[in-house]
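[retry 2/3] BED-type domain-containing protein: previous attempt timed out, resubmitting with same input.
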Amino acid sequence: MCLLCNKVLGNDDMKPSKLQDHLRRYHPDKTEKDLKYFQTLKDKFQKRPTLDRMFASTSQRNDDGLRASYNISLLIAKTAYYRREVNFASR
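[retry 2/3] BED-type domain-containing protein: success.
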């Protein structure tokens, strides 16, 4: 993928000669940039917010809430079952 135009490139296009050709054709103003410029672009791209990262903490909280709800329901069900058994035994 080209970090400048976000164009998805094929496997054949990832050869150094074709990458340089893409840079010359589509980004002629960037041909004189040094390696550090492209490394910072890569770092920014990797650190960008994604859906997984944005919702990771939310889903963790939902999982904790779901687990707590399940445990409470399980306790209620066990208690109700025990009370039903005691009521039948006393009759």
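[retry 2/3] BED-type domain-containing protein: The chain has a mean pLDDT of 81.
[retry 2/3] clearing retry counter.
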